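Give me the 3D structure for Ribonuclease BN (tRNA processing enzyme).
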Amino acid sequence: MPRAKLGPVSDLSLTVLGSATPYAEPGNPCSGYLVSSGETHVWLDAGPGTLAELRRHTGLDRLAAIWISHLHADHCADLLTAYYGALFADVELPAPIPLFGPPGIADRLAGFLTNGPSRSPVERAFAVQELSDGHRAEIGPMTFTAAAVEHGMPAFGVRIEAGAASLAYSGDSAPCPAVTSLAKNCDALLCEADGPAPSEAHHTPEDAGEAAAGAGVRRLIVTHVGPFLTPGDAVTRAAARFEGPVAYAAPGAVFHLP
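Predicted structure for Ribonuclease BN (tRNA processing enzyme) (258 residues):
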């Protein structure tokens, strides 16, 4: 199928594949993004519906890696269909796709995919590398640095750097020093703004604004806006705590950095 163009050349670009939670909405899949630098593309979180949107821009066989923040279904469930696409469809992988994710990710996938006495061969599709706090990976011209965040389960935010550009992603997390540290002086912070009230597992829009201000980022992109807020509400409330530009991660939006 024809590939959509990713826009003008920049050190780093972020394409929003979906940003809904806790389940997909018409026209908006769950959490998933395409992070690109030149011809290097990384699928960042794989929420339900994001694989189809990913294919508007690139194919599984052209991905440099997949990076999963945590194992809640709204961030990783499309790995299941990606497995079938990688091994049993029209995709010819030159090698298993590097898959970075929390400890136990391979067995979690195999537990769902196995339908008989033999374990499903997850590793034929994915070359799994388990994340840990401080994990660093060079993927083409991009450097990914993980940090453990507070979500009541193993979960990781990430800082992505390429050339002069930098992007931090909270994943799902309660406010914590790790998010602010990851985002220090970044061009952009992609941060959840999940609900209207404080939570032990998620940022509110106000929390997202405070994290952006504390980190000194140049812009804030709010995502993962829950069903009890509108995107406009989330942007307005985050902007009350952060003086820089605030945008919503609308499905299909592309952000070029720096």
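Confidence is low (pLDDT under 50) at residues 1-8. Let me know if you want a second pass.
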